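Q: Sequence in, structure out?
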Amino acid sequence: MSTDTKAGAFGADSKPGATSADSKLKLLTEATRHEIDEWVKKFPPGRQRSATISALRAVQEQNHGFLTPELMDAVAEYLSLPPIQVYEIAAFYSMFETHPCGRHHVSICTNLSCMLNGAWELVAHAEKKLGIKLNESTPDRRIFLKNEEECLAACTGAPMMMVDHVFHEYLTAQTLDEILDDLK
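A: Exactly. Output:
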């Protein structure tokens, strides 16, 4: 949805690109708007709400790892949705953070399969290596060690973790160190 459209891509009464003083659209970068547009195209007309998760993920990346109320309002405005629908999605899914935190999000699965294969030992190892506890960020805001994840749906690769939406399976303390050390 280009911001230069007059009537909006989602209906006659939506006005993407509005320039009113209270418009939050200016908070979305051109690259973020383009990424959201690509997701919106994947759904039938009038179903732009289906792109909300992808839009929030793009905005969170734009903002170095977390969402603000203003950015969530911008997503709602861009997708012509009531803000509460965007807030509900951001609050429900553990992939979204609404407070300042590290750039790289590290989630170590602690569900049964991972726990039986040493997940808690890996959590302790990561906490010691990084000098932080779960739900904290390193002082340089490079890494955010998210709260324990109940399940990341990769039980056959236990123990595992997700770093910035990428799965890493069959972890050992050594592979965990290598992955964390590679995060710049």
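The first strand starts at residue 104 and ends at 108.
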